[in-house]
Amino acid sequence: MTAFALSPSRLAANALVTVGAAVIFVPLVLTVYLSVFDETIIVFPPQGYTLAWYARILPEFGGALRTSGLTALGAATISLAVGIPAGIGLSRYRFRGRRAAVTLLLAPLTIPGVAIGLGIFVLAVLIEERTEWALSGSVWLMVAAHVLITLPWVVRLCLASLANHDRAAEEAAASLGATPLMVIWRVTLPAMRGGIVAGALFAFIVSFENLEMTLFLTAPGLTTLPIAVLSYLQYHIDPLIAAIAVAQIVLVGGALVLLDRQVRISRVAV
Amino acid sequence: MDAAGERRQGAAAATFLAPATLVVMVMLMAPLLLLLRFSLNRYDRTELMIETVTGANYLRFFSDPFYIGVMRTTLAVAALSTLLCLLLGLPLAYRLARMQSRWKTACMLGIVLPLFIGSTVRMVGWMILFAHGGVIDAVARWFNGRGMEVMYTSFAVIAGIVSINLPFVVLTIQSTIETIDTRLEEAAGSLGAPPARMFWRIVWPLALPGTATAGILCFILAMNAYATPYLLGGPRFQMMAPLLYWEFSTNNNWPFASALALLLMTTTLLMTACANWIIPARYRA
């Protein structure tokens, strides 16, 4: 191999790998760097370094953080309750229209987020006009919409976790007198534990970071973190916003490292 | 399986699938149908929306050079960033797939992590690079004394989109390359093929299905990008998703926004179908 070490094609490949890695990581590294600047604007080099910006995250963005967290928690919970049975049903039975059902349940992944957001908003307004139920701009609508975009992930991960599942254990339990619900509770669900944990975490993260769809569902007093960050970024770029970004990177990174022990994330992320 | 058995299985499956199907029907299908209906309505400055059946919104889109231009920009940005993503993603994916050291898991997590941080937060880094007084500007000022404005250019937007989509592309291609038997490459090497030839004759054809999937995914994501053109492109750089939101929130023109949503969705699906059609059947995933 050393004979080719300096061949032009190898050099080109190395250059592309370097550029690719730089495009992914340089912005993240710069964000971490800016978050400790003791300046209110970007000045190189800064007059000093401070961690004070991290203390201001909660006072400035606490409300948005709370909305995002609660929405993601609610959406992930409902998504699991709805998606786990769907995953079991799809893996257990062979029936006509199974492919169509899979396509339908995964469809939210391929439809533009802005189209989904606008559609859900106009539907809510229409229902509101008919029933006088203040739906648009409510946290309920937000959670319901987020269930839609997190559901494909839960279904996909549950399906994957049952791919090598042997149904013999379920049949044995049933022949020994276990009720169908008992079989699911004691045999099927434990077998798909990895998929459920991964699904819960993916659902939470996908909901937490969603921007395009959520844009249409916010209201005064009901803003999620990505949208608060977006409207802040439109006018200023300062260490505070970098600190929020870093806090999110650390939280998500920690969650992924924990999750990696359960399932190989790289296998299910795409 | 006999017909009765299949029906029994179908009935059992229906109970398991009903709640999830209901969610998608109510939250996705009904809203999309409603958009289709709204896109045929007429917009009025005082009454906002007048119920009717007209193709005026679509006609307006196709007859106004501004909107056609926005669609053209969106397509061009999506196509260019997809090409760049594939160019940068292939070597990176190959390196990752053939990595043997104990750092592999760490590298994989490093690629997955950015996927889950969200496009808004990831834009912060690019804004530090591109902003007035940012890294590039500061370095250029040090060299030429004038600085360099990169913010609000199409270069900035494409760089931002590439950086957001690249991890997706790398992971998709990497998982395909993992399935290629390394002995094929060793055989080519021992028969005297230089690495470049080995790559193009062995790895490239076998990796094509994954590469195609990655390209399509990247294209869809780029077509629908919101945060990147909004923040890095500035007010003068128009792409479909920000334009749609602007028509909705600032102009309150729901009929036209609905038409834009459907046009964006249809264009994306059409381009995806075209890509599937162009790629020879034997290379499809």
Please name the defining characteristics of this protein.
heterodimer; A: 270 residues; mainly alpha; MetI-like fold; 12 helices; globular; B: 285 residues; two-stranded antiparallel sheet; 2 strands
Supply the CATH class of chain B. Answer: Mainly Alpha
Alpha carbon gap, first and last residue of chain A: 32 Å
Distance between the termini of chain B: 28 Å
Tell me the name of the CATH homologous superfamily of chain A: MetI-like
Query: What's the average pLDDT of chain B?
Result: 87
Q: Would you write up a description of this structure?
A:
The complex is a heterodimer of chains A (about 270) and B (about 280). With about 270 residues, chain A is an all-alpha fold. Chain A has a single domain (about 60-270), classed as MetI-like (MetI-like fold). Chain A has helices at about 10-35, 50-55, 55-90, 100-105, 115-130, 140-160, 170-175, 180-190, 195-210, 225-235, 240-260, 265-270. In chain A, helix 3 (about 55-90) packs across helix 6 (about 140-160), helix 6 packs antiparallel against helix 9 (about 195-210) and helix 7 (about 170-175) packs antiparallel against helix 8. Chain A starts with 7 loop residues before the first helix and ends with a helix. Chain A is built from twelve helices and no strands. Chain B has one domain: Orthogonal Bundle (MetI-like fold), CATH 1.10.3720.10. Chain B is about 75% helix and about 0% strand. Chain B has twelve helices and two strands; from the N terminus they run H-E-E-H-H-H-H-H-H-H-H-H-H-H. Chain B has helices spanning about 5-40, 55-65, 65-95, 105-115, 120-130, 135-145, 155-180, 180-190, 195-225, 225-235, 240-250, 255-280, and strands at about 40-45, 50. Chain B has a two-stranded antiparallel ribbon. In chain B, helix 2 crosses helix 3 (about 65-95), helix 3 (about 65-95) crosses helix 9 (about 195-225) and helix 8 (about 180-190) packs antiparallel against helix 9 (about 195-225). Chains A and B meet through helix 1, helix 3, helix 4, helix 5 and helix 6 of A and helix 1, helix 3, helix 4, helix 5 and helix 7 of B.
